[in-house]
Each structure stands twice: as structure tokens, then as C-alpha cells.
């Protein structure tokens, strides 16, 4: 039982902080919070993402490229451009690694310094020591609480948690599902109630309203991370007052997209 609870908590907490902090806050700046709360979120993102923690800077740059070049040759992860999921993930890993090591020719508009940075924490994803350390920690947990040997087959999910979430969102979010809005890319809404990836699978809505912290657009759609953000805003941990809310009707106006190309 402890193994299943651990798996569910690790999965949900990891994708929650990836979505709410790295994506919505770091890459898009969809809402604001104080520097102290930013530190708390940064630390929680590091803790919950563990062995697959990503540098907020490299993530922001890569993600902004994804929005600007969605489903074109220059998109870091497009299922339309790549023959299969594996090749798409390899390309993403290559570009992420190159950005991290300063070997990628990043357009200045993607690297504007508007992303969170905490060198002490962010340095942990440079080598292999921390990712392996986290992997060992997950294994030790399984050694302590697994009730049968086959449960050890679940360990790779913990080791590869971030890439698994990325594969689901980036592949199926541009491949499978329905579209609310016409766009030049192939973004889709895969699940109307996206508990699996905390709202990240509303790719079609999100590409249309890139600056809205709410990824749901229609009455039947629920974005769990946005519900959590509303609660956090009520208790004044985050501030959503300046955020651009998406509206199903009337349709989008250019003023809803303050950062050109994102
Ligand atoms: Zn997308
Ligand atoms: Zn985005």
C-alpha cells in the first residue's frame, strides 16, 4: 500500500510543481508571488521533481521556443515533425542539454532573464550525482516498503518521472483529442478533466491563450492546477489579479498576448 501511495503522491506532486512553477510561473509569468514564496516553490519543485529536476532557465527557453515554433521544424518537441515518441524525446533531450551547457544558439527574446533562478539548487541538475542520489533514495524506499518483487518494476517511473510527464503532454497534447480553437499548430485538448497531468493536456486552449493561468476554456473542462492556484490566491500565496484570463467568448484579441510570440 505504501508503494502505491508513494507513486501517486510523487506523480501528482511532481507534475503539479512542474506545471505551476516551471511552466506557468517560470516560462510564462502568468501570475506573481513574493520572492520568499518563489523560493518555497523552487525548493518544492526540486524536492518533488527529484531525479528529473529541470533548470528553470533551460526549461523556460525551450518552452518559449515550443510556443513560438509550435509543430514546425524548430519546435523542440513536435509529434508532427518526428516519426515516433522516442525520437521526439531524444530531440527534446538534445536541445535541453545544449541549452543547459550554453551550446545552443538561443534567440535573445527567449532568454530575457524573466525566469526564476537559484544557483545553489539549479546546479544540482548539472552532473549525475544528484539524479543518481535521488534514484537511490527511491530504491531504498521500495526496499523498505515493497510487499512483492514485481513492485520494483515500478521504479523506472520514479527515475524517469519528468520525461514521462513530458512525453505524455508533448506527444499526446499535439496528437490526440479535440480542438476548441483553430490554430496553425496541431495542439489538442486530450482530456476534459485532466487529473493525469494537472491540466497540461489542454494544449489547444493553452496555445491559444498562452498567458492565461487557467488552461480550461469551456464549461465542462476542469484544470486542477488552476483550481489549486485559485485556492493559493485566496490565502494570498500567489497573486492572480494581473493575469490574463482566457474567455471562451468573445474570441481572443491580440491584447491578451502581451509577450509577443509566447
Ligand atoms: Zn504545446
Ligand atoms: Zn506554455
Explain what this protein looks like in three dimensions.
By secondary structure, the protein is mostly helical. It has a domain at 2-183. It has 10 helices and no strands. Helix 1 crosses helix 2 (35-49) and helix 3 crosses helix 4. The longest helix is centred in the first third of the chain and has 26 residues, at 2-27. The protein is globular, with a radius of gyration of 18 Å. The model is unreliable at 247-262 (pLDDT under 50). Bound molecules: zinc ion (2 copies). One zinc ion binds next to helix 9. One zinc ion (ZN) binds at residues 66, 70, 173-174, 187, 203, 207.
Question: Could you state the order of secondary-structure elements as H and E?
Answer: HHHHHHHHHH
Distance linking N and C termini: 43 Å
Shape assignment: globular
Radius of gyration: 18 Å
What average pLDDT do the residues reach? 92
Strand content: under 5%
Q: Which class do the helix and strand fractions yield?
A: mainly alpha
Distinct small molecules bound, one entry per kind = zinc ion
Major sheet details: none
What are the segments in which pLDDT stays under 50 over at least 5 consecutive residues? 247-262
Helix content: 40-55%
What is the number of helices?
10
